[in-house]
Specification:
The protein is of the alpha/beta class. Helix content is 46%, strand content 15%. The protein has eleven helices and eight strands. The protein has helices at 16-26, 37-43, 46-53, 68-80, 94-111, 129-134, 143-156, 169-176, 203-209, 218-221, 226-238, and strands spanning 7-10, 32-36, 58-64, 85-89, 117-121, 161-163, 181-184, 213-216. An eight-stranded parallel β-barrel has the order 1-2-3-4-5-6-7-8, surrounded by six helices. Helix 1 links the parallel strand 1 (7-10) and strand 2 (32-36). Helix 7 runs parallel beside helix 8 (169-176). The chain is globular and about 45 Å long.
């Protein structure tokens, strides 16, 4: 896989024009475009089709979390959109993940399309150990331990990989094997501000630890020259 194909660009913007403008500008520098709740809720599912028309692959980052039947039905819809990846919350449980994996795969076979890579979100990269214990009332486990437990459940339930902090990559690799995909947010180049991410690392460090894809948003999108910022990250990955 080329370095640029590992970069997932977060389209954290409000409008169709901003999103498509970034796709047009950066399609030669990134492998996947991540559409999250901000853009998806602003302009609707048509944004996926428009990115596809420009030759881009889409990671639909909606973090589905509901009863199994509801998430399974949503997974069928996202599969019909031919998303490259989408995600669900591992906290939704084994049966929810099993259902969405089954429904998405069946929908892809029915339509003759490639099944999406379904990822389980473990512990959000904005959550610290203190918040996990004092606000989410998860005691007796470190963040890293909880991430690995949820990753193992996700693999057993049919997920193709996880979204996790780079700090947990090696632990998940050891527990889940080399074929289990790891998508890593919380990536900040040394020349970029940390913003609200708590558990972060650099692009090169994430790659060295075994990440398959790295999610980068503000360091590229908010840069004075987004193309130059993306090129700097590619160079760091190739170094």
């Amino acid at each position: 896989m080329e370095a640029k194909d590992r970069i997932v660009l977060a389209l954290d913007v409000d409008t169709l024009e901003e999103g498509l403008g970034l796709v047009k500008k950066l399609s030669g520098y990134v492998g996947v475009f991540k559409i999250g709740m901000q853009l998806y809720n602003s302009v609707g599912p048509d944004i996926v089709r428009r990115v596809h028309e420009l030759g881009g692959r889409v990671f639909l980052d909606l973090k589905l979390h509901d009863i199994p039947n509801t998430v399974g039905a949503a997974g069928k819809v996202l599969t019909r959109l031919q998303t490259y990846m989408f995600n669900v919350h591992a906290a939704g449980g084994r049966e929810m993940m099993r259902t969405v994996a089954r429904e998405a795969n069946a929908e892809a076979i029915k339509n003759g399309t490639i099944p999406p890579l379904i990822l389980a979100v473990t512990v959000l990269t904005s959550i610290s150990q203190q918040e996990l214990e004092q606000e989410m009332f998860v005691t007796g486990l470190k963040v890293e331990e909880l991430v690995v437990k949820w990753a193992l459940i996700a693999k057993e339930a049919g997920m193709g990989g996880v979204v996790c902090s780079p700090r947990e990559i090696s632990l998940i690799r050891q527990a889940c094997g080399s074929d289990f995909k790891i998508v890593t947010p919380g990536i900040r180049p040394l020349w970029s501000a940390a913003d609200d991410q708590k558990r972060i690392t650099t692009p090169r460090q994430a790659l060295d630890q075994g990440a398959d894809y790295i999610v980068i948003g503000r360091p590229i999108v908010k840069a004075e020259d987004p193309c130059a910022a993306a090129q700097k990250i590619i160079a760091e990955l190739e170094a």
